[in-house]
Automatic annotation (TrEMBL), chain A:
A matching Pfam family: ABC_tran
Biological process terms in GO annotation: transmembrane transport
SMART domains registered for this protein in UniProt: AAA
Family statement drawn from the similarity comment of this UniProt entry: Belongs to the ABC transporter superfamily.
Taxonomy, superkingdom: Bacteria
Ranges for domain ABC transporter: 4-249, 271-507
Keyword Nucleotide-binding included in the entry's annotation: yes
Alphabetical keyword list: ATP-binding, Nucleotide-binding, Transport
Organism: Bhargavaea beijingensis
Matches recorded under PANTHER family: D,D-DIPEPTIDE TRANSPORT ATP-BINDING PROTEIN DDPF-RELATED, TRANSPORT ATP-BINDING PROTEIN
Protein name: Peptide/nickel transport system ATP-binding protein
Coiled coil: none
UniProtKB/TrEMBL annotation, chain B:
Predominant localisation class: membrane
PANTHER family the record matches: DIPEPTIDE TRANSPORT SYSTEM PERMEASE PROTEIN DPPB-RELATED
Name of the protein: Peptide/nickel transport system permease protein
Pfam families: BPD_transp_1 (PF00528), BPD_transp_1_N (PF19300)
UniProt organism field: Bhargavaea beijingensis
Its membrane topology: Multi-pass membrane protein
Length: 519, 321
């Protein structure tokens, strides 16, 4: 018997359909994974399942939970359906908590609303659920405010919040996307445990084929608001049929494969870093604490080489990037550029969230050639340069007249790359460039970076927590932890590294199999 | 928290000293002579020598810095000097006006915040509706009307045309509601426009947060979302602004109290300024500054109590795990 049923659901905005004729059903006790590129209608499906479509959209067709139309539930029935019938876990873990309420208060509120449970009983139950989420000190977490927890902890708590209402169906919308890989694994484990213990139904939404492979009984492939393919997981991974599924599989391979060719001559050292250290002071007036963000780091980057720097959040990756870009001085150690001490503007930095590094009132054309403006290059000439640079990073030359808000995350990322190339960068520092991109956009960026290296001989320092993309892209990878570079080598060398930390990073790649998907 | 308090107290003391210095200096720039205020029409009969003697008696012939140190040391001992007008101790003159002003300020603030809460919240919840736009238009109108004109119009209408409310004084005491209505309403209305808009925007911002969608998706009833999430989230910044609004209202009370002959601090301030009654004026200004600083300090503490993130802003970073 199907627990959730979509029956020709069409959701339309002013101009276009967001979902068209979506029809599928979830059998009880199954784990279904919905995959697709961003904008393919995955999140709208989740909202529709809850009967919470945004205002101003028209819907036709039906969504039924155990045969009951979700859109036509009376208010009171809907409030029990939300939470107790279907629970949801959102992607953004910080925006889904009330910032002025403690974690414990979040649980207490739900227990009082749904079970009429208050006082000590509610507190006890909250602590139980927090500890079931694998959080070491539940009492402390219950007293903490959302901003005091790490993203991974918040995400686990979010799952515990949803699970604590004992829903029959759990919908998880990109629950792992913004997290470090090892934390992703923990979150996926938590979802699996929930499934095993309760026998509930799980609808997991993701753009990551690895996650799908790891979790799915059945896969639903979305493409522009339509269901492109729906099949048992092992069948789909063995032979995807639809265009969308094949594209996703290919993108996943690009992101997941280790390049064999393209190894360039790295005899020409571009940048040499030795013994670089940097500490920060934090804390209150009377309790100063020194945090060593970077501890005797040494590495070298050859010209035209793509070098990866991987490690967990807070490991010192961004500090190293700031020092290399010359934004902050090092306290000890030396940075040598082409054999001498001063390194020039040929090192460019592409910010993690490129849109926030742009002046929103400037057109793409002006943004890209800002560096040339300072060099006194004439306007007409700049415009020409902008057009050719945009073409080079795979954007249409007409983009020069558009503003950053009109562009997608991937396009802004390309714009930032073009801006670095405009001043003839020889080394581009990419700081978590893929954090906000879906797998298909990631694959396109990887192809672009490789081709820029091949055509222009630009070297890249690729900073990431995602070991998979680092393997796909880099000639050489350094592993950084707690400010120290603890391991390094080519992807092949690293794959067989004996270092326990490198091994644990590798072990956390979701859906890691010998050959991901046959085409 | 203790460190926070010490820091704020030190800041406050610094502001008070700086403020008293400025006021002490600028008061002397008001054209005119205290002797004129003390002797009124008799002034013409005084000789130049008499005037100098009066100045000397008041200590006004000494250099300004010396006068300041003298005055400040007296104040620190609790002696605010005697009023030039009546010869009474300045603090006694002021204390008499405190109760009327306090009643007027409290009533007008309660009215104003009540209006801002009511219309701010209701229009934020119905964003861009006809109701929202009407409230917005009326708020702008209220912001544009000068308080003195509003006072005169209300007086004209309620006291003269309808004859239902008294136009001046405070009757038997500060608690005569009939006398209180007009001045309190004028102060409240003349600031309400700004605060309705402010409250509306804060409520609107706090009611579009992603966590509200999450709460709804977890089955929390709408009423509860408004009362225990939207309101408290907007409260912290609004309390801070309300603290600041008390200063504005206090300043506004000078005009309103004068028009309605309300025997409060504001009217006394104007009277002493016109009469060059330096001790009283200085005491009023200093007292008002201390009051405003205290209220803002309390508002800051209250806001930090509501919003945990504000507690950390003052201690750089704080604990994270």
């Amino acid at each position: 018997m199907a627990i959730l049923e979509f029956d020709h659901l069409t959701v339309a905005g002013e101009r276009e359909e967001i979902l068209s004729g979506l029809t599928f059903s979830l059998p009880e006790g199954e784990t279904a994974v919905m995959i697709g590129q961003s904008g393919s209608g995955k999140s709208m499906t989740a909202r529709a399942a809850l009967g919470m479509l945004p205002d101003g959209l028209r819907a036709s067709g039906a969504v039924r939970f155990r045969g009951e139309s979700v859109f036509h539930m009376p208010d009171k029935r809907r409030r029990t359906y939300l939470g107790r019938g279907a629970g949801i876990v959102f992607q953004d873990s910080s925006g889904t908590f009330d910032p002025i309420r403690s974690i414990g208060q979040h649980f207490r509120e739900l227990f009082s609303v749904h079970f009429g449970l208050t006082g000590k009983d509610a507190d006890m139950r909250a602590l139980q659920w927090i500890s079931r989420a694998g959080i070491p000190d539940p009492a402390r977490a219950a007293a903490a405010y959302p901003h005091e927890l790490s993203g991974g902890m918040r995400q686990r708590i979010q799952i515990a919040l949803a699970a604590s209402l004992e829903p029959e169906l759990l919908i998880a919308d990109e629950p792992t996307t913004a997290l470090d890989l090892n934390i992703q694994t923990a979150v996926l484990e938590l979802l699996k445990d929930w499934k095993k213990e309760t026998g509930g139904t799980l609808l997991l939404i993701t753009h990551d084929l690895g996650v799908a492979r790891e979790m799915a009984d059945r896969v639903l492939v979305m493409d522009s608001g339509k269901l492109a393919e729906e099949r048992a997981a092992h069948e789909l991974f063995a032979a995807p049929r639809s265009r969308a599924a094949r594209q996703l599989a290919e993108d996943w391979r690009t992101v997941g494969e280790i390049p064999t060719a393209g190894k360039t001559d790295t005899s020409l050292p571009l940048l040499n870093v030795s013994g670089l250290s940097r500490s920060y002071r934090t804390g209150r007036l009377f309790k100063k604490k020194e945090v060593r963000a970077l501890d005797e780091a040494s590495l070298s980057i050859g010209s035209g080489e793509i070098v990866g720097l991987i490690g967990e959040s807070g490991g010192g990756k961004s500090t190293l990037a700031r020092l290399l870009a010359g934004i902050e001085p090092a306290q000890t150690g030396t940075i040598t550029w082409k054999g001498n001490g001063n390194w020039p503007e040929a090192v460019q930095w592409v910010h993690q969230d490129p849109a926030s590094s742009f002046n929103p009132d400037w057109t793409a054309g002006r943004l890209v050639t800002e560096g040339l403006e300072y060099r006194g290059v004439k306007r007409t000439e700049r415009e020409q340069v902008a057009r050719s640079l945009l073409a080079e990073v795979g954007l249409s030359p007409e983009t020069v007249l558009q503003y950053p808000v009109e562009l997608s995350g991937g396009m802004n990322q390309r714009l930032a790359l073009a801006r670095a190339l405009a001043v003839s960068a020889e080394l581009v520092i990419l700081d978590e460039p893929f954090a906000s991109l879906d797998m298909s956009a990631q694959a396109r960026m990887i192809r672009l970076i490789r081709s820029l290296r091949d055509r222009e001989g630009v070297a890249f320092l690729f900073i990431t927590h995602d070991i998979r993309t680092a393997f796909a892209l880099c000639d050489n990878i350094y592993v950084i932890r707690q400010g120290r570079i603890i391991d390094g080598g080519t992807p092949d060398e690293l794959a067989s590294s004996a270092h326990p930390y490198s091994r644990s990073l590798l072990a956390h790649v979701p859906g890691r199999g010998d050959s991901p998907i046959q085409l | 928290m203790a460190l926070f308090l010490v820091k704020r107290a030190a800041e406050s003391a610094f502001v008070l000293i700086l403020g008293s210095l400025l006021v002490f200096t600028f008061i002397r720039l008001i054209p005119g002579d205290p002797a004129a205020a003390m002797y009124g029409d008799q002034l013409q009969k005084l000789t130049e020598a008499d005037r100098l003697r009066i100045s000397e008696n008041l200590g006004l012939d000494e250099p300004l810095p010396v006068q300041y140190v003298h005055w400040a040391s007296q104040v620190l001992q609790g002696n605010w000097g005697a009023s030039y007008l009546t010869g009474e101790p300045a603090d006694e003159v002021i204390v008499r006006t405190l109760l009327p002003t306090a009643v007027l300020l409290i009533v007008s603030q309660v009215l104003m915040i009540g209006l801002a809460l009511l219309f701010g919240l209701t229009s934020a919840l119905r964003r861009d509706s006809l109701y929202d736009r009407t409230v917005l238009a009326v708020s702008v109108l209220l912001m544009a009307i000068p308080p003195f004109w509003l006072a005169l119009m209300m007086m004209l209408f309620f006291s003269i045309r309808l004859g239902v409310l008294p136009s001046s004084g405070m009757g038997a005491g500060p608690f005569s509601i009939r006398h209180l209505i007009l001045p309190a309403l004028v102060i409240a209305l003349s600031h309400a426009g700004y605060y309705i808009r402010l409250f509306r925007n804060h409520f609107a911002a706090s009611s579009s947060g992603g966590h509200l969608l999450a709460l709804r998706a977890r089955g929390v009833p709408y009423r509860r979302i408004v009362l225990s999430h939207i309101l408290p989230n907007a409260a912290a910044p609004l309390i801070v602004y309300t603290g600041a609004s008390l200063a504005v209202s206090l300043a506004g009370s000078v005009v309103v109290e004068t028009i309605f002959s309300w025997p409060g601090l504001g009217r006394l301030a104007l009277k002493s300024a016109l009469a060059h009654d330096y001790p009283v004026l200085l005491a009023i200004v200093l007292l008002s500054m201390a009051f405003v600083i205290l209220v803002n300090l309390l508002a800051g503490l209250l806001a930090a109590w509501i919003d945990p993130r504000l507690r950390e802003a003052d201690t750089e970073g704080g604990a994270r795990w």
